[in-house]
Amino acid sequence: MPYSLKNRCVLVTGGSRGLGAVICEKFAEQGAHVMVNYVANKTRAIDVVRKVEAHGVKAFVTQGDAGRPEDNVRIVKETIKKLGGLDIIVANAGWTRFSDFKDLNALTMEEWNKVPSLNLCCSYS
Q1: Confidence grade of residue 93 (pLDDT, cut at 50, 70, 90)
Q2: Which of 13, 24, 46, 117 has a CA-to-CA distance to 56 between 20 and 30 Å?
Q3: Could you tell me if residue 38 is left (phi over 0), alpha (psi between -120 and 50 degrees) or otherwise beta?
Q4: pTM for this structure?
Q5: Which helix (H) or strand (E) element contains residue 10?
Q6: What is the DSSP secondary structure assignment for residue 26, as one 8-state letter?
Q7: pLDDT in tens, 65-79
Q8: Where are the bilayer-spanning segments (predicted)?
Q9: How does DSSP classify residue 3?
């Protein structure tokens, strides 16, 4: 018997655009309720929620930076409260700033540190 996603509660970080938006909709197509996380563009996140809700499931938006542990704790708590639980987390959020390999000094220390803090270490403690 295949695993059913019907009525499962899913949090997708970086769910407001690109692959994250597609992931949100695919979960909804299978009957899962979805929390769409975004960092900056609430309008785009709301558009994803509308597409998700068109599949007859619950969907909400939550703002927060998945690279910040304190935001992640709040995002998870909000997801559990609004969806009634949390079964799956898709750590989709990511960030990069491209620079010429010969000029890595073009990256600020904040930018340098942001890449692993978001892309490798999404903390949900």
Answers
A1: confident
A2: 13
A3: beta
A4: 0.81
A5: strand 9-12
A6: H
A7: 988 889 999 999 999
A8: none
A9: P
